[in-house]
Design a protein that fits this description.
Layout: E1 8-13, H1 18-29, E2 34-41, E3 49-52, E4 55-61, E5 72-75, H2 79-91, E6 95-98, E7 127-129, H3 133-149, E8 151-160, H4 167-181, H5 213-226, E9 232-239, E10 246-254, H6 260-268, E11 273-275, E12 296-303, E13 310-317, H7 321-337
Parallel strand pairs: 1-2, 1-5, 2-4, 5-6, 6-7, 8-9, 11-12
Antiparallel strand pairs: 3-4, 8-10, 10-13, 12-13
Helix pairs in contact: 1-7, 3-5, 3-7
């Protein structure tokens, strides 16, 4: 368990990646009580520097010997490294907040979105899991509706930016866009098809039932975070040619009737949500407008008249912040509150 302190020794594992960089930035922006920040990555990143509060910090090689004395470690180095190093860190007395999929569905590991289920932090055993980016923003929007009217079923289609795959994917979108405009041949590397001026209904691997791992993550993680296996979820996840920010179209069936105005009122008082819903003025959430923003934006709220108690909503959020780095830091903030 974390001991109460004025300041903490914090590590970012995978510090040179897109999410790791964002974690460092969020720790600084939110003035997290850091006594010392240590940055770790693979051998190829050794010696690189990242600024923190105006001071360049040198990236160290990750080994199983580095965790002694570290209070909190934010992991964003992939599932294999999390499986290998998170238990080592926890055994050394460090609390790990892991951004990979490695621990999310482990029954011994809390899966936390602080606006939704902060109480689950209390039963951690050294590792706390950060949910999938598309799940995080969805459950922030679902939670107040579930509390108000009990959700029966969710049908979600995502529109996910390439930054969710990483820097190489962002470079591929930029290069392919340039190549198309200059009439050059396109050679996909990161994705199986061209992503520029295209949409791919394919995120992560396809499973035997025709769903992708990303879609299954959204189903299972939503139930675990809401603490309610009765909520039925089905998902279609789509990669779109946007650099940063995920959007989702969500259809919700509830037990109790909520009008569109009722739903807007619920959203307007919910933590972590900003309502942008004036379509007559062309006001609705846009991924481009969520960059570097902390909140989940909700709009296009309307009733689904094909079912008795139905709502349609459209949401957008910054997948690198609320969908990853910010949520991890918010978990850490909640953790120190409870120390």
């Amino acid at each position: 368990m974390l001991k109460k302190k004025d300041k903490y020794i914090v590590a970012v594992v995978g510090a040179t990646g897109a999410v790791g960089n964002e974690m460092v930035a969020v720790l600084e922006e939110r003035d997290f009580p850091v006594e010392k920040l240590r940055l770790f990555a693979s051998e190829r990143s050794e010696g690189k520097t990242i600024d923190f509060h105006g001071n360049p910090l040198t990236v160290e090689i990750l080994t199983d010997k580095v965790f002694d004395g570290i209070d909190i470690a934010l992991f964003s180095a992939g599932g294999d490294r999390s499986k290998e190093f998170a238990p080592v860190a926890a055994k050394a007395g460090c609390v790990v907040i892991d951004n990979s999929s490695a621990w999310r569905m482990d029954p011994e590991v809390p899966l936390v979105v602080p606006e939704v289920n902060p109480q689950d932090i209390a039963w951690h055993k050294g590792i706390i899991a950060n949910p999938n980016c598309s799940t995080i923003q969805m459950v922030v929007a679902l939670k107040p509706i579930h509390d108000a009217a009990k959700i029966r079923r969710v049908v979600v289609t995502t529109f996910q930016s390439v930054s969710g795959t990483g820097k190489k994917a962002m470079d591929e979108l930029l290069n392919q866009t340039s190549d198309i405009l200059n009439f050059k041949e396109i050679k996909p590397v990161v994705y199986p098809h061209r992503i520029a001026f295209n949409c791919l209904p394919h995120i992560d691997k396809f499973m035997d039932d025709g769903y992708t791992k990303e879609e299954i993550k959204m189903v299972n993680e939503t139930k675990k975070i809401l603490g309610d296996d009765s909520v039925k979820v089905t998902a279609t996840t789509v990669r779109v040619p946007v650099f940063r920010g995920h959007a989702e179209s969500i259809n919700i069936e509830t037990e109790k009737k909520l009008s569109a105005n009722d739903a807007r009122a619920v959203f307007s008082t919910a933590p972590g949500i900003i309502v942008l819903d004036a379509p007559e003025k062309n006001i609705y959430p846009l991924p481009a407008d969520t960059a570097n923003k902390d909140e989940v934006y909700v709009g296009r709220v309307r009733e689904d008249d094909t079912i008795e108690n139905g709502l349609n909503i459209w949401i957008a959020a910054d997948n690198l912040r609320k969908g990853a780095a910010l949520n991890a830091v918010q978990i850490a903030e909640e953790l120190i509150k409870r120390a």
